[in-house]
Write a structure and sequence with these properties.
The structure is a homodimer. By secondary structure, chain A is of the alpha/beta class. Chain A has 2 domains: 6-130, Response regulator (Rossmann fold, 3-Layer(aba) Sandwich), CATH 3.40.50; 142-199, Winged helix-like DNA-binding domain superfamily/Winged helix DNA-binding domain (Arc Repressor Mutant, subunit A). Chain A has helices at 14-26, 37-43, 63-72, 88-96, 109-141, 145-155, 160-167, 171-185, 190-199; strands at residues 6-10, 30-34, 50-55, 79-83, 101-104. Chain A has a 5-stranded parallel β-sheet, with helices on both faces. In chain A, helix 6 packs across helix 8 and helix 7 crosses helix 8 (171-185). The interface between A and B is medium-sized, with 24 and 25 residues. The first copy, chain A, binds a DNA duplex through residues 144-147, 159-161, 169-173, 175-179, 182.
Chain lengths: 204, 204
Amino acid sequence: MNQEPSVFIVDDDEQVRSALTLLMESVGLNSESFSSGQEYLDQFDTSKPGCLILDVRMPGISGLDLQARLSAEKIHPPIIIITGHGDVPMAVRAVTAGAVDFIEKPFNNQSMLDNVHRAIEQDAKQRGESSRLEEIESHYDELTPREKEVLLYVIEGKRNKIIASEMNISQSTVEAHRSKVMEKMAANTLSDLMRMALLLKLIT
Amino acid sequence: MNQEPSVFIVDDDEQVRSALTLLMESVGLNSESFSSGQEYLDQFDTSKPGCLILDVRMPGISGLDLQARLSAEKIHPPIIIITGHGDVPMAVRAVTAGAVDFIEKPFNNQSMLDNVHRAIEQDAKQRGESSRLEEIESHYDELTPREKEVLLYVIEGKRNKIIASEMNISQSTVEAHRSKVMEKMAANTLSDLMRMALLLKLIT
DNA sequence: ATATAAATTATTATATCTTCTAATTTTCCT
DNA sequence: AGGAAAATTAGAAGATATAATAATTTATAT
């Protein structure tokens, strides 16, 4: 079920697209090309693993705009920016905004491949982490409001007796909620639960 | 006991140093100037809060070299790189290596000040976090080897009985170690201990 | 209004954890 | 060799947590 990663190329210049496509093929990497940012936005599928190569200067949506839009949607694939006429402020902006690289054309084929491989690895790592997070979130969503409340107390290390008094309910109720929390979150131990709470950012 | 932050300026050009010094004075910021990377390395004091402004092109150690050296020493003050003749690859390298900004001379005074303020804030935040970490580390260092071993099992959520069998010692011993760990680490609850273990990176 | 889910409580039995006290054995440094 | 720190163990009492079962009261949605 593990999909092969692809390199998603977004550039209005047909020459560049085909050159990159060939380059990727030469090392057995899949690629998909888009001639504009809009075309990518219309067709992209976050379930597909891989990385992006975006040209800065394009009609319509620029590579940097596209980067910003994806970021706003909380979509964070590794992005390599390429440009023919880059300047320093632009490069700084792209990298601080999270681009893994900012490369000027014409680029060196081997270093481009190195960057792509690094980016693909990073994506695979991120995907592993985020699929785990999604699983935990789906468990968390199953909790009732009261159970979530109890969870917060539990991860603070409070004892059932204290939780009961702070929530003005009986200890038995706390125990019932607590055991439901453990069950629904699929946590075997308190430390499992803490780990999950961390990923859910319930803990600072 | 909270020291005022300073801006540490490293540039071989006396003109630039005095201009920056005046700029910082104009908004009430302390600054210290160094005419070379070596001079900074000879005199720097990590206990002083603030940020760095490094020129790229200097005789001897360049700004980027200095950045790399500090990084190798695990010293991570916020660094603003300035340069008269920057290029894109250099900017990308500096930023990916952790520089908060890469600014070309001549720079805009107000935007420089904005960056400096941001950098100083970031430093203050880092210092708060790292002083807490140092406290925890000093506690951790007090643990005996055996206690550290038990700690690892504990944060995995293993029960005393299991720990005892895996370590081939009696449950009583585990209990003794465990209580010493809680005491030495100054942890009131298991969740406290887990939080500390996270900061110590004992947990993935 | 009436099922359904959620929240509440209690009881009992068992398992664990914590704390305290006390003592013995190992290990390591000077 | 002698002493200090570390590691080891035991027992007992009290506090907590867990698991299983059962029952009642609110909410809530169709």
